Amino acid sequence: MKVLVAIKRVIDHNVRVRIREDHSDVDLTHAKMAMNPFCEIALEEAVRLKEQGIADEVVAVSIGDKSVQEQLRTAMALGADRALHVNSDTAVDSLGAARVLAEVVKRENPGLVLLGKQSIDSDSSQTGPMLAALTQLPQATFASKITIDGDRLEVTREIDGGLETLAMSLPAVVTTDLRLNEPRYAKLPAIMKAKKRPIESLEIDTLGVDVTPRQALIRVDIPRERQAGVRVASVDELIDRLKNEAKVI
Amino acid sequence: MSDTRILVIAEQEKGHLSSATARVMDAASRLGGSVDVLVAGSQANEAAQKAARLTGVSGVISVEDSAFDHMLAENMGALIVSLAEPYTHLLCASTTSGRNVMPRVAALLGVGQISDVIAVESADTFVRPIYAGSVLATVRSLDDKKVITIRPTAFEPVGEQDAASVSSEASTGDQGLVTFIDEQLAGGERPELGGARVIISGGRGLGSAENFRLIEGVADRLGAAVGASRAAVDAGYVPNDLQVGQTGKMVAPELYIAAGISGAVQHLAGMKDSKVIVAINSDEEAPIFQVADYGLVADLFQALPELERKL
Asked: Taking every annotated instance into account, which residue ranges of this chain make up the domain Electron transfer flavoprotein alpha/beta-subunit N-terminal (chain A) (predicted)?
């Protein structure tokens, strides 16, 4: 079985995001970029499926300008067999990404598609379910456990009240939650080897899909910061202030 | 705008309407226009009667069929799309169910989705947090039909009215793509994290699962829900559905007490809209003190039992 993993290049999660002075957008110049953490988890799961003999090929795909090849090389250093770069000079939104990925699914015919549950830049959490809809495949979002037996997939999902387990047949689309696994680090020899490996490139406008953005960004703002309040000296003072000043207990 | 027609997709379980529905109604009322509510699943008719009493509801569509239990995306998606035609806006809470179902609906309709809206500027312009809540984006939808998920804690629950009419619609049935196997819910008598008025959360500072009892002791005095930081969840002190933060639950109670939580951005993203924040930490440099209204530098193992005793 072939596993397709979608990878997104995003600002490193440790970087404090700034906005442009004119509030037109966030300012990513010189910001450190990295693979989206949930995509790392998706890739790790795919590599583990290969190590268990369930998957025979892991294909990483990313959409964006040439810079995303950096993350595709990381993916190969971490165990992806092949990388596919869908070249686009402009950013695509979730629906655009899902439409592109649906074309890639048609072409590659994977038994399983893994994506992160959300990217930490847009926090939209849409691409996986949108891809499942466009390919008419079953979906399992927020997966914390994946079990594959032949063409049957059992997925435990993180839901608001706890966990739920769903069964579906493959092919299917699964998005990964934080607790699915602990991604490994790339080893230096693997990083060196991945540098020389070819990356297949596709031009986005050859795919025949409409990737026009569905939303216009009007402005961005930094939320009003909360101010530090007062230090209380004792539990008694805390209770007193919560009762008589804040009136919340 | 009189031509605005909104469909709110409610969640229900065994006839109980989700508490988020009244908050999504608040967001819907800010769009103007008429609002219908869709309730689907086993015992949907019972929950539909409750939805009909929410202020601002024009009509309720009830589809009683077990195919819609657990909000299975494949079945709910097909149902919502079958009903979508007359509506300009489709709204659902950005719970794990809403975030599972609505993007599927949007893609089937060929439109984008606006996720996790915290403010309504107009019928096509919305504010939503990005980058773990460190930036607020104002976005305008360019689609004729708008698919939107609403962050419940950013809105107030609406009140009650004389019941609107409830009608039944035909089920689109089970799409046969997914089978529900089982669920493991972390039940309990304490209030649910999402709707609690008071929350007390513990972090790595508690040191062990046993010590989380100190948190529970205070929670029971206050009638509070118990939460946790990701560090406490990853260390195995509590199950992960208690996690508050970017990758857990977003909460905005009247009082949030953070005990033994340093205050990483990830955690703050989930609770910084609380009305009053209290931090109890032995490290006076902990970043949580920068957002806390009341900070107490103290040893948790003395402060928490004292708090429980004196409340």
From this structure: 23-211
